[in-house]
Structures are given as structure tokens and as C-alpha cells.
Give the backbone structure.
Amino acid sequence: MGATPVRRRGLRSLAGLAPRLLRWQPLAGAVVIVVVVLIWPTEGWKGGVWSLRAIALALAMGALFFLDDAAAELIAPVPTPLWVRTWTRAGAALLATLPVWIVALLVEGGRLPGVWVLWLSMEFAALLAAGLALTALLGRGRGGPEPGVLAMPGMVLIALAMLAVPEDWNLLSLKTTDWASAHVGWAAVLSAGVTALLWAVRDPGRSGWRSRAARPSSSATRP
Amino acid sequence: MIVELLESHEDHEDLEDKVSALPVLALTEARRLLRHPLTLLGFALFALSVVTEVGDYWGPRPAFSLITNGMVLWLGVLVFFAAELVASASRRAGGDELLGVLPTSRTRRTAASCLAALGPFLVACLVQAMLCAGYAVWEVPLERPPTIFELASGPLCVLGAGVLGVASARWLPWRGSSMLVMVALILYNNIGDEATGRHLLGFYAELPIWGQWPYRAAKGFHPGNTDWHAVYLLALCLGAGALAMLRDSPRRWFWLGAGALTLVLAVVAGWAQLP
């Protein structure tokens, strides 16, 4: 038997295990929220923009739980490095949320000016990247192996902060002119999210930065 | 030796009956809740929103909105999540079984968590008082001075958010469930129309009419009785507390009755606030 069929079979069995390996339930809850938002009556193109923004935030908050890994400390010494495990989970989160986002765009896109579909997709990508990066950073820091429950309110905080800042800095604007600064801001959020995710998934054993082994294990303290 | 140990245990139980640990626990929980990063950042966001409003949108209408419902969005939302995290911390850390063998019961810990919501509420009252003093010193132009009930609606929502966070942690011990609760609150908040005054059934109730862009001028107020609105919010706070206690208390009928009473009060006040 060649290496490729073995790899295929391994991937197939891994895909079959995905529901047990990934914390998908919060994302299922987020999809319910998406359905409610889509059927909730809103008026005009501004209502459509806010609906899609709410959907983007809900999906990002649901997807960040994909990085929860209750067995992270147990499987830390396995040959598969942390970055492969984390990026696999992040990729699964993207695969799970993308179809929902596309359906939402198809439903709401009819009443939006065309350019908003592109810009809102960028906002969705930036929120998703920021959420995953925040979760990975919390997991590496004090959040333990299941940091999603801390990262989720963190995303709410980020969204509220975007609303609270002065108008010149506001990323959740509805302006149809002079919007370059807002979109440069979203591009910066996306870049910062991806960079932070890259940084957070470095192997702690090689980086020399607060090795996991040096810290008390949360699982060891459980009865 | 065994007899002495048993006697000391009985003495301990007597002491436990006489000196309740509830105030001490409540103070400790309140301190944890107040020092939680989300609560601190909530107060920081409220301060930032005040600065932003003064800089970008200042006028009689925004000034009235800020002092009546500003706390609901910037502080209330984050206090809800902070209270949920603090109340669920022992469960998430796998420590509930360890705490279960302590003399202090789970009922008392839940009661302490509910009482701890008074911490952010009292600080919110203080912040509200400071804001009122600032309005008076700088002679902020308002269409009319807000009543004490209108001023109380912001801190009352903070109190309700804290207690509801505890109820959510007790009844919905699943990861991500607080997001569903928050979305349900947001949807419930949007059921009423401002023109008919039914928006007062929500929590983030806008009292002045926005008017035309840039929404700064005084254009009057939406219909509805704001005094009863504060009573309605208080009833909802008490109801959330009864709901949290119902989960763990052995006196379920008592808390069911208390919850039913607060529900009746909320329905009466909710009806009375409508124009």
C-alpha cells in the first residue's frame, strides 16, 4: 500500500473524528443566530449592512471555539507541532464559517450597493482573524487549553470599542464617501490578526518564551 | 480524641449558624467582579464614550441620552460577561467538587455571587453622580433635567446584567451559551417601537427623540412613563436573582414564589410604563 492512500485514509478518519475533536457547538449556536438575524426585518441598505456585521461577529465568536483543545497539554510532546495543530483547527473554522457567510451575502446582497459586499467580506475576514488570534494568544497565556470562553467576550469588547472611538477612528462607519481610512483600518486589523496568530502558534518549547512545561498544568490540579 | 473532634465540628456548625459567611463571601465576590478586566474595561469604555460624545456629537439630545442609558451598552454588556465568567470560574477550573466539601453551601455561594452584582451597581451609581455633577458644573444644556428614575435606569441595567450573568452561569453551564443569552437580550430589546412607547419594554431604551441629522437638537421625548420603567427594570433584576437562586437552593418553592411575584411586578410595571 502506497503512502498516498494511507495518508488519504488518515485524513478521512481524522475528518470523521472532527466532531469529537472540535468544539463545534458554539458555532452551531452562532448559525442559529445568523438565521434569526437574516429573518429579522430590517429596512434599507443600512439595515443590511448592520445585519451582515452582526452575522460576521456572531460567526467569528462561534468559530474561535474551534481552537479549544482540552487535550492540548497531553498532546504537546507529540511530533505534530503546535502550529500545524492550530492552523488545522483555524482552517476547519474557516471551512465551517465560509459557506454560512456566502449564504448570508446571497440573502442580504440584493439590497446592498455592490461595493459593500466586498468591504463587508473584508470585515468578516478581519474579525475572524482577530478572534482566532485572540484565542491563540489567550491559550498561550493565561487562558489555558480552552481559551474560547475568555476570547468570546473579548470579541464583544473589541466590537464595543470600535463603536466607542471617535468618528475619525470608527471602523463601523456607514459613510459612503471618505471611507478609505476605515478600510485601511480593517486591513490593519486583518494583518495584525494573521501576524498575531502566526506568532502565537510558535512551538513554546523552541521559542524559549514561557515554556508550557514550566507552568503548572490545569489538568494536574483537577481532582 | 474522636469525641473532641466531633464536638469541635458541632461547635463549628453552631458558629456557622450564628455568623453567616454570606457577607464575607459577597464582598469577596464583589471585589473579584469589580477587578475583572471586562468590568474595568467597561468603565473605561464608558469614559471613552463620554469623551467621544463631547467631542463629536455634543448637544441637548446626546447629553440626555448619555446620562440616562449610556451605561447600558458600554458597561452593562461587559458586566454581564464578567459576572458569568466569575460565577462559572470554579466550574471551568474543575473545582466545584473541591468546593462542594466546604461548609459553605453552593446555595450560599450563588447568593453571594448575586449580591456581588451590587458592587458594579454602586460604582455605576457613583459614576452617574459624578456625571451629574459634571453636567451641573459645565451647565450642559438639556431639554429638561432627568428625573431620579431616569438617572437610575443605567445603573439598574448594570445590576440586572450582573445578576443575569450569575443566572446564566448556573442554568446554562455550556461554553458559548452566554453569547446566546446576550443575543436573546438584544433581540428582546428590539421588540418595541419607539413611536408607540413600547421600546420601554427593552433595557436600552432611548428616551429623547433623535430628530434629524446630526441628532443633536432637543426634539421632545418618546411617550411612556419612565418612573414605571425604573420599577420594571428593578423587577427584572429581582427576577434574575430569583432565577439564579432557584437552580441551587433546596427551597425551590420559595424561590419559585419569589420569581412569580417579581414576574407579576414586572408585568404590572411594564404595562403601567406604556403610554
In short: The longest helix of chain B spans residues 60-87. The mean pLDDT of chain B is 88. The interface with chain A takes residues 38, 41, 45, 48-49, 51-52, 55-56, 73-74, 77-78, 81-82, 85, 88, 92-94, 97-98, 174-180, 182-183, 187, 190 of chain B (CB under 8 Å). Chain B has one domain: 21-273.
